[in-house]
Design brief:
Structural class: alpha/beta
CATH architecture of the largest domain: 3-Layer(aba) Sandwich
Largest sheet: 5 strands, parallel
Radius of gyration: 19 Å
Number of helices: 12
Strand order of the largest sheet: 7-6-5-8-9
CATH superfamily of the largest domain: Aspartate/ornithine carbamoyltransferase
Order of helices and strands: HEHEHEHEHEHEHEHEHHEHH
CATH class of the largest domain: Alpha Beta
Shape: globular
CATH topology of the largest domain: Rossmann fold
Distance between the termini: 9 Å
Strand content: 5-15%
Length: 304
């Protein structure tokens, strides 16, 4: 495995499978109250530009449960906010902490940190990708479906950073992935082409939600306006009004379909209250699995 996880294209299929196995092992130990603290004396820096609930707390808790110490660093409180070059901050932080998880707007900024650090850098979300989210989501699929091979995964909504990471995973792992997005809100074609070079996943992009959901084993959605797009909410609400995950979509999906959402959810917009709280929803398992996958990622990158 490479030093960093900036996108899921940094991982081979073998890397994915190793992380799934380790996360399941760590989850089992946690449930059985068996301590596993290999990162005692190690420190994780959490450098965040964007607000966070699940990503921040799961990374902090993961580091503590592994015996290490997390340090939350608000980017606006650092000298970066006063125009210190990223390369200078990166080299200094390499002397202080053992790993950096960065949640920011620009993928290029993340890549610059990676270039100038000697410690692992983890993408905890950018406007372009959200790799650790999909790692934990796939862990949830494995738990509920027994694996990811031979199943249909359907994305409904915006072609955003989470969908881009699903596309990356699809090509590395050979997934059957259908994305239903409104015209004008499709995933970035350059990202699709870059991912296509890595493998042989089956990707279908459509604006027909019923066709996309037909026989789906997994239906996944996200908010219509991501962080930083709040001023587009009215326009997006109109464009996405027929892209709600509701009872109608579930009726054409597989009988044992699972519904996923990376949260926070806007009930009544991208997902109905009935579906979010219904028997097919696994969103709370999905949220929990961020903790266990983050433990697997930290243990692997820092221990090496």
């Amino acid at each position: 495995m490479k030093k960093d996880i900036l996108t899921l294209l940094d991982l081979s299929k073998k890397d994915f499978e190793m992380l799934f196995e380790l996360a399941l092992e760590l989850k089992k130990k946690h449930k059985n109250q068996i301590a596993d603290m290999p990162l005692a004396g190690k420190t994780l820096g959490l450098l965040f530009d964007k607000q966070s609930t699940r990503t921040r707390i799961s990374f902090e808790t993961a580091m503590i449960q592994l015996g290490g110490t997390p340090i939350f660093i608000s980017a606006k409180d650092t000298q970066i906010a006063r125009d210190e070059p990223v390369r200078d901050t990166a080299r200094v932080l390499s002397k202080y902490v053992d790993c950096l998880a960065i949640r920011t707007y620009s993928q290029k900024l993340l890549e610059e940190f990676s270039k100038f650090t000697t410690i692992p850098v983890i993408n905890a979300l950018t406007d372009t990708y959200h790799p650790c989210q999909i790692l934990s989501d796939l862990l949830t699929v494995i738990e509920h479906k027994g694996g990811y091979e031979g199943i249909k995964i359907t994305w409904v909504g915006d072609g955003n950073n989470v969908s881009h990471s699903w596309i990356n995973a699809a090509f590395v792992l050979g997934l059957n992935l259908t994305l239903a997005c409104p015209e004008g809100f499709f995933p970035d074609q350059k990202i699709i082409e870059k991912a296509r070079d890595k493998g042989s996943g089956k990707i279908v992009i459509t604006s027909d939600t019923l066709e996309a959901a037909k026989d789906a084993d997994v239906i996944y959605t996200d908010v219509w306006a991501s962080m930083g797009q709040e001023n587009e909410h009215i326009v997006r609400k109109q464009a996405f009004k027929s892209f709600q995950v509701d009872k109608k979509l579930l009726e054409v999906a597989a009988k044992d379909v699972i519904v996923m959402h990376c949260l926070p959810a806007h009930r009544g917009e991208e997902i109905s209250e009935e579906v979010l709280e219904g028997k097919h929803s696994v969103v709370w398992d999905q949220a929990e699995n961020k903790l266990h996958m983050h433990k697997a990622v930290l243990k692997t990158l820092i221990s090496r």
